[in-house]
Specification:
Layout (H helix, E strand, L loop, with lengths): L2 H13 L8 H8 L8 H13 L3 E5 L2 E2 L10 E4 L6
Antiparallel strand pairs: 1-2, 1-3
Length: 84
Amino acid sequence: MSVPVETALLELIDQTAPGKSVSPEQVARAVDPENWRRQLGQVRTVAVGLARQGRLTILRHNKPADPETFKGVYRLARAVVVDG
């Protein structure tokens, strides 16, 4: 896992109000403002790993998405705790 990407991602999510999310672009820009596009693949990889660990939630259309199968535009939010 990329430590700078993971750190930036978790910090941005922690700074975000409950119920809000961050974009992969925001994370990439926090890591490398000049060449942020190069970071987008790493952001996705780190986000999937953290989602598998239950440390964040990947959102598609503002709903939790399966980190194994999601495609397209996504956002990142605090982990959703499911009571059950």
